[in-house]
Amino acid sequence: MMLIDTCIVIEVYRNNLSIIERLKSIGQSELSISDITCAELYFGARNKKELTAIARDIKKLEVIHIDSTVSKKAVELISKYALSHKLAIPDALIAATSICSGLPLLTLNKKDFVFIQGIKLIE
After folding, report:
1. For residue 49, how many other CB atoms are within 10 A of its CB?
2. Cα–Cα distance between 123 and 109 in angstroms, integer?
3. What is the C-alpha separation between 26 and 8, in angstroms, rounded?
4. What span, in angstroms and rounded, lies between the C-alpha atoms of 103 and 99?
5. Helix axes of 35-44 and 89-101: crossing angle, nearest 10 degrees
6. For residues 71 and 68, what is the distance between their CA atoms, to the nearest angstrom?
7. What's the CA gap between 117 and 81, in Å, rounded?
């Protein structure tokens, strides 16, 4: 099982065939997303049709919810990396979800996470 970053899902919606094939080879049952990715996807919807499609697709994935452990870890990451590496709140929450769940993070934005201790990244 792995956590997929928001950028991965966006590439699927952009019909990026290499990403789509990679996810197919991994298998849908092995993919999960965080609550933050859900929120980012809903926020990025341009109309009701996209919003409906996003909601349908999210139901096909395991969503890992933010709990107090993830929240505390995210605050720790922000306090440690916000000034030095410009760690954004959504990325801190996704990283904390990855770390606390023990799931590696599949991302196209390695630079946003590479400096975080304890996270396992998959490019």
Report:
1. 9
2. 8
3. 13
4. 7
5. 150
6. 5
7. 10
Count of H helices and E strands in the chain? Answer: 6, 5
pLDDT at 123: 76
Instruction: Give the model confidence (pLDDT) of 25-64 as tens digits.
Output: 999 999 999 999 999 999 999 999 999 999 999 999 999 9
Report the candidate in 45, 47, 71, 73 with the shortest Cα–Cα distance to residue 58.
45
Kindly state the tokens that stand for 86: 């410009």
The span from the CA of 46 to the CA of 103, in Å, is 30
Residues 14 and 46 sit within 8 Å (Cβ to Cβ): no
CATH number for the domain that contains residue 57: 3.40.50.1010
**Structural domain containing residue 19:** 2-122
Structural Rg of the chain based on CA atoms:
14
pLDDT for residue 9: 97
Burial class (CB in 10 A: 0-12, 13-18, 19+), 60: exposed
Angle at 107 between CA 36 and CA 5, to 5 degrees: 15
Domain count, the chain: 1
